[in-house]
Amino acid sequence: MLAGKCWGLRDVRVTVPSAILRNETAVLFCHFDLEGDSLYSVKWYKGGREFYRFTPKENPAMKIFPIAGLDIEQIEGNILQ
């Protein structure tokens, strides 16, 4: 379901609901251990297309890319959510 590349990170866990009903909210989590390094970015994809990016050193740090059928809410959260 989720495919990607990861260099140097350990203990990466992704929590995604297996299914939701139309108009329900799903919260996606990415748990990781940077082992003292700084985070460059976290990106989420659906069908090979990026729909969300968190890059803490950029302004704005959160970017949302429109994809038909997805309604992404920009929430106040942390880098894991």
Q: How would you describe the overall organization of this protein?
A:
By secondary structure, this protein is mainly β. It has one domain. The chain is built from no helices and five strands. The strands form two sheets. A three-stranded antiparallel β-sheet has the order 3-4-5, with no helix packed on it. The radius of gyration is 13 Å and the shape is globular. It starts with 9 loop residues before the first strand and ends in a 17-residue tail after the last strand. The mean pLDDT is 81.
Topology diagram in text:
Blueprint: E1 10-15, E2 29-33, E3 42-46, E4 49-54, E5 62-64
Antiparallel strand pairs: 1-2, 3-4, 4-5
Q: Walk across the major sheet and give the strand order.
A: 3-4-5
Number of separate domains: 1
| Unreliable stretches | none
Q: Which percent range describes the beta-strand content?
A: 25-35%
Give helix and strand order, one letter per element, not per position.
Answer: EEEEE
